[in-house]
Protein 1
Amino acid sequence: MSDDQTAHRRTSADSPGPQFALVRVPQSYLSVEGFARRSGVHPELVYRLVRLGLLEARAEPTGDLSFAPEQLRTLARIQRLRCGLALNYAAVGLVMDLLDRVAELEAAARHRRRAALHR
């Protein structure tokens, strides 16, 4: 076996499978600047999305805003809808609400199917 084949097998065996982590998700709340830096947007856009109700923020005792790490995924979703479908922010909010509702209905349908199989 050649060195290349050995290296390929070692890499394949050591790897647990495909990994799709695009952004390292922090474990604690992020400041506006940290949130903007991690997501690659300007802080003014972050404030705007909070004012529009598309992002959820926590008000700190100092008056500053902070963001849960999960909000990075929400912002990525907003950007995908805005850029991919050329939606304005009002439409983005509506589409996100509808997609969330579809996901809830699909989860409920899966739950009912599993319950029916176990009867």
Protein 2
Amino acid sequence: MALRQICVYPDPVLREETREIKVFDEELKTLVADMWETMYASDGLGLAAPQVGEAKKVIVIDYNGEKFVLVNPEITNEEGSVRREEGCLSFPGIFEKVDSPEKLNVRYYDENGKLFLKELDGFLACVFHHEIDHLNGRLLIDRVSPLKRQFLKKRIAKKAAER
């Protein structure tokens, strides 16, 4: 396992089209192990592969001790909408209220190639939705109003200049 650097907005890898995983091999298991280590070191709930510089369809989530590895996840149904505050490891220190589905059905594989169909609701649906958005190049900043987006971009640029 290795700790990887988390890519911070506006790193271009966060907008790249992610590649589907076709081989469930040791390389994939190493990526997953690295993502777990990186997520825990960063106090995150979830982490998508683009956030560690890999444009691949892989996510890890630990919600209240329940662990999920999502490979090639696909949202098959979503219902309702709820407004929640979200943060993101790629936007350190920024928390915004955004809309996310109330219920979600997701189809995915684990790192061994086993297929899962999961029905989710509540905050866990929000976490899955947020991480799957990453695989599609959609970020927290895309889910706020245009005015708020402009404000956040200026705030992020100011923080980057201070580093």
